[in-house]
Structure formats: C-alpha cells, structure tokens
Write a structure and sequence with these properties.
single chain, about 230 residues, alpha+beta, Arc Repressor Mutant, subunit A, Beta-Lactamase, 2 domains, six-stranded antiparallel β-sheet, 8 strands, about 45% helix, about 20% strand, globular, WH_DNA-bd_sf, glycerol metabolism
Length: about 230
C-alpha cells in the first residue's frame, strides 16, 4: 500500500512538472533551451530533459533548428476541441471586428483566478498589430478582460483590491485598461455571458486608436450579441 501511494505521488509530480513545462514555454513566447526550462522549473537538467522527451514523443513540444524547445503543433489540435462551439461561433465575429478596427480581437474565459485567451484573430491588413496567443493567461484582477469577466460574478466574489473598478465595469458595461498586462498596450473588453459556459469577455488589444474606449466597446457589444445569438442566447 505504501509502495502504491509513493508511485501515485511520483506519477502526479511528473504530470504536474510536464504541465509546467508547457506553461513555461507558453509564457516565454519564444524557444527555450533545456537549461532554461530546468531553471524555471527549479529542477535538475536531467529531469527537465526526461520531461521534454516525453512531451516530444506526444508532439506537444518540438525543437527548432538550434535545438531549443517550443510548443508543438499537436497542442493546436488539442486546443481546437476546447469549447469548440464557442470558438466556432466567435471566430467569424472576431475576424470581422479585427479587420474593421485594425486590432487584434479575442475571447478570454475565466479559469479559476485567471483570464485565459481562448481564440484570437489579428487584423489582415494592419501596419502593426498585437499578437494575443491562445492559451496566454494573466490574473483576472489585471487588465480589461479580467474585469469584464469579474463583473459577471456575484459582488461578494470580487477581490477587494479591484471591487470598485469592477463595480464601474458592471455599471457601464465595459472595461478598459492601459499597460496593466503588457506595457504600452491598451485593451477594451465587454462581458460575454453565455449559458453553459464560464464567464467570458470579448476584447480588443492595441497600441493606439482613433476610437475612444466607449466607441470600441459599442462595437464589441454588437459582436458579443451576435456570438450569443449564434449559441442560442
């Protein structure tokens, strides 16, 4: 029995570390060497190497020409199955809004105490646009999407340090932020409340705009309604 418990604990630790490798690579947004991954995990290089080899075998991690690690294409196939109905309903609207405004448009969803980008679209003909990679995450207390998500929760669940801001978002129907998640970037988000889904937000992120946040929010609200209608309310 003790032996079985130790095996279970070891398996759980290995799984946790493997997931952390994927998170480290996603957060880095660039290829990393084995030593860099080991350092960020706080483990010996040999342990990091074994984890990476297993993830490679499943196509979740791949090597670039220099031998550094990056997320593998298999992850995209797995991610396509996450909330597939929401992704399918949102994608046409995200594409329209992104090209119309010249901004990256995306849907973020609540995942425990974080906001996670589910699907995003960059504008086709913009001179400069911001990459918002699916799977990127940040605390739901930071940035416009986080506050738009929080505004859909009961007031007693709002963190005290942002309760006043969330109350304002709930009253006006949108959130805006500048430099909170990534320096120099602005964002506007509106709540995307969908039956059968965690609270979500429809948002744009940009460097600069001739539109006011209120004008951007009005366009996003129209897009959010279209997505809701496509999913049956």
């Amino acid at each position: 029995m003790v032996s079985d418990s130790r095996k279970t604990a070891s398996t759980s630790q290995t799984l946790s570390r493997g997931i952390r490798v994927l998170e480290v690579l996603a957060d880095a947004q660039e290829a990393l060497g084995v030593d860099q991954i080991a350092e960020r995990l706080g483990v010996h290089r040999s342990i990091a190497y074994r984890l990476i080899r297993t993830l490679e075998d499943h196509g979740l991690v791949t090597r670039d020409p220099a031998g550094r690690m990056e997320l593998g294409a298999r992850l995209a196939a797995l991610a396509a199955g996450i909330k597939h109905d929401l992704q399918a309903a949102a994608l046409p609207e995200l594409t329209t809004v992104a090209n119309e405004l010249g901004m990256t448009c995306f849907v973020a969803v609540l995942d425990r105490e974080e906001c996670v980008t589910l699907v995003s679209v960059e504008p086709r003909h913009a001179v400069a646009s911001v990459a918002q990679r699916p799977g990127s995450r940040h605390p739901f207390t930071a940035g416009a999407p986080g506050r738009a998500v929080l505004s859909q929760l009961p007031a007693e669940e709002w963190p005290e340090d942002v309760a006043e801001e969330v109350r304002d978002v709930a009253a006006r129907g949108y959130a805006d932020s500048h430099g909170e998640v990534i320096e120099n970037l602005s964002a506007v988000a509106v709540p995307l409340s969908l039956r059968g889904h965690n609270p979500a937000a429809l948002a744009v992120v940009y460097l600069s705009s001739a539109h006011t946040p209120a004008e951007l929010a009005e366009r996003l609200r129209a897009a959010a309604k279209t997505v809701r209608d496509a999913l049956g309310g």
